[in-house]
Design goal:
heterodimer, A: about 325 residues, mainly alpha, MetI-like fold, about 75% helix, globular, B: about 325 residues, Rossmann fold, 8-stranded mixed β-sheet, 4-stranded antiparallel β-sheet, transport (chain A), MetI-like_sf (chain A), BPD_transp_1_N (chain A), ABC transporter permease (chain A)
Chain lengths: ~325, ~325
């Protein structure tokens, strides 16, 4: 198994290489340049030329690419044009914020979705099932930004229960209890919004898996042993039904760093999603390319992680 | 003769479009101690439905069971799910057709065998593990310690069916219902599994209800045979009697359609038509009449009953008296 994992990690290298070329070219073809906003129609063309030359934008594309990829391999993704900061440092800081928000969101999501999915599947044709399905369709139909805005307005501005933007209150110093509490406090509202809206997939998956599993031959075998239905559910039906959820777990884990563009933007939460949008808007190449490379890497890693998790939970799947 | 299980006028109906259609329609039979009773019939005749009804494994919302299934003065058809659990696995157990899908893919087979012991016995954990190993040995598995830790997909078809049998016999049940236990297996393995069943039956004295559509299997192991067609019993007889003197047109057609090695023929004999679906099943008159249209209507009974034509040999309807086959050349022979 370890051999396979190492091999799969090596296979990622050419995949990431191809990805890097595509990203680089796409980034270059984006309209506009990082100086948008810095220059006005009155700016001296010689000044623009000077800025471009300084940023290396006048070199041939392949030279720019080699320079970029060479630095990237060493962990140097350059300086953000807009933030005037080291990209690695900037992304690291945002990734940490996003990680905590996502982690709390996903835990909350599983806490809501798994019990609901199990109940809906177990009590098929009941009123309970119908209300759970209705809930999951309603939340599926509500756009994230709508509920985010409603919650922000209601709980943030009207009731003032939760902060309306940021990731921490500036009054607190890093390391104090107040600081961490404040961080958590800023996460709650966006996390609840995310968790309430994200349940559909898991509920529907679990529900239909359980309904399918109930009709399986091995469930009939279990019942023919004379064991109580409660045990048939917990030992035979639920375990088998959770497999597809486990299959997505790898992507969910690596997805923790991806962040949600809508949630972070609306709640003014300085995370990866927000950074991604703002860097695109300001043509901040070094940040965009670093982020897309990171997302690509995470997706590849997620699929590997999913395979590893599947091989642990399902004895029929073995990584050889 | 001790009667282990007696079924009286059993009707099992499935709900379709808010009406119940009986797949088993008025079946009465009894199983005696030390007996292997074979239930034969083609697909859709209700034989598996009968077996599943005995175990009470149907969803009660979509199934309706009427009649009596008497086991030790208890009517199994009237028990609740909890009461049934006292009987299932402990007194009556079941072996299913396809052992791969009938075993939980995520559980070690040892644990699956042990499960019944947890709920039906007071054995300690070590005693249960020990019992699992004994059971595995009993069903002819060479390396029980190793096999107990395997998952179903790691075993061969024959081994899996042995595991199913070990599950079924773990609490020494009085009755074993084997629902086509050899259908999913290779012919060579089939014989082994049948031998094992017969051997275990002799050891434990359990009664076995063997459900099959394979007359070869029946000939090999059964003591008594019940032939079912369209939800009804059409013929019931001791094994020798049935094979030597089959009477009902359906039974005779079944035998007639077995290919014969010593007779040269270019085409197989078949029974014309198909088994009527549940919805279109004629609920009165002889249900086999449509498939032997050359027999005049007067030959059939209006309300076909089982008639005892010799001790222990029952035949439904009167049409058997005037039944004959048509050869392809148009000759008739009896």
């Amino acid at each position: 198994m370890w051999k396979t994992i190492v091999r799969r990690l090596f296979i990622m290298i050419p995949q990431l290489f191809v990805l890097s070329i595509i990203i680089f070219i796409l980034a270059k073809f984006m309209p506009g340049d990082p100086f948008t906003g810095l220059i006005t129609p009155e700016t001296d063309p010689a000044r623009i030329e000077e800025l471009s030359e300084k940023a290396g934008l006048n070199d041939p594309l392949y030279v720019q690419y080699i320079r970029w990829i060479g630095n990237a391999i060493q962990g140097d993704f350059g300086i953000s044009y807009t933030f005037k900061r080291d990209v690695g440092e900037l992304v690291g800081e945002r990734a940490l914020n996003t990680f905590w928000l996502s982690l709390f969101s996903v835990i909350l999501l599983y806490f809501i979705a798994i019990p609901l999915g199990i109940l809906a599947g177990r009590y098929q044709h009941s009123r309970l099932e119908k209300s759970i399905v209705l809930y999951s369709f309603i939340t599926y139909a509500i756009p994230t930004f709508v509920l985010s805005l409603v919650f922000l307005y209601l709980f943030g501005f009207k009731l003032e229960w939760f902060p309306t933007s940021g990731s921490v209150d500036i009054r607190y110093d890093e390391g104090t209890f107040g600081y961490y509490w404040s961080k958590f406090y800023h996460i709650i509202l966006p996390a609840i919004t995310y968790a309430l809206l994200g349940t559909t997939g898991i509920i529907q998956y679990l529900r239909s898996e359980i309904i399918d599993a109930k009709a399986m031959d091995y469930v009939r075998t279990a019942r023919s042993k004379g064991i109580p239905m409660r045990i048939v559910y917990s030992k035979h039906i639920f375990r088998n039904s959770l497999l597809p959820i486990a299959a997505f777990l790898g992507f969910t884990i690596t997805g923790l760093l991806g962040g949600s563009i809508f949630i972070e933007t609306i709640f003014g939460y300085p995370g990866m999603g927000q950074l991604f949008v703002s860097s695109i808007n300001s043509r901040d190449y070094s940040v965009i390319t670093a982020l897309v490379m990171l997302f690509g890497f995470l997706t590849l890693l997620g699929s590997l992680l999913s395979d590893i998790i599947m091989s642990i939970v399902d004895p029929r799947i073995r990584i050889e | 003769m001790d009667v282990l299980l007696e079924i009286k006028e059993l009707h099992t109906g499935f709900r379709m479009n808010d009406t119940f259609y009986n797949a088993v329609d008025g079946v009465s039979l009894s199983l005696r101690k030390n007996e292997i009773l074979a239930i034969v019939g083609e697909s859709g005749c209700g034989k598996s439905t009968l077996a599943t009804s005995i175990m009470g494994l149907f969803d009660q919302r979509t199934t309706r069971i009427q009649g009596e299934i008497l086991y030790q003065q208890k009517n199994l058809a009237a028990l609740t799910e909890e009461q049934l659990n006292e009987v299932r696995g402990l007194e009556i157990s079941m072996i299913f057709q396809d052992p791969l899908s009938a075993l939980n893919p995520l559980m070690r087979v040892g644990d699956q065998i042990e499960e019944g012991l947890i709920y039906h016995t007071d054995l300690s954990k070590e005693e249960r593990k020990q019992r699992v190993l004994t059971l595995l040995q009993q069903v002819g598995i060479q390396d029980p310690k190793h096999v107990a830790r395997q998952f179903p997909h790691q075993l061969s078809g024959g081994m899996r069916q042995r595991i199913m049998i070990a599950i079924a016999i773990c609490c020494k049940p009085k009755i074993i219902i084997a629902d086509e236990p050899t259908t999913a297996l290779d012919v060579t393995i089939q014989a082994q599994i049948l031998d094992l069943l017969v051997e275990l039956q002799k050891e434990t004295g359990a009664g076995i209800i063997l459900i099959t559509h394979d007359l070869g299997v029946v000939a090999e192991v059964a003591d008594r045979v019940v032939v079912m067609y369209a939800g009804e019993i059409v013929e019931e007889a001791p094994i020798k009697e049935l094979f030597l003197h089959p009477q009902h047109p359906y039974t005779r057609s079944l035998f007639h359609s077995i290919p014969q090695m010593n007779k040269k023929s270019d085409r197989l004999n078949v029974i014309e038509g198909i088994v009527p679906s549940l919805i279109h099943l004629p609920r009165s008159g002889c249900r086999f009449a449509d498939r032997i249209p050359w027999i005049p209507q007067e030959a059939h009974e209006e309300n076909p009953q089982l008639h005892e034509i010799s001790p222990g040999h029952f035949v439904r309807c009167t049409c058997w008296k005037s039944f004959y086959f048509n050869t392809r050349k148009g000759e008739r022979y009896v």
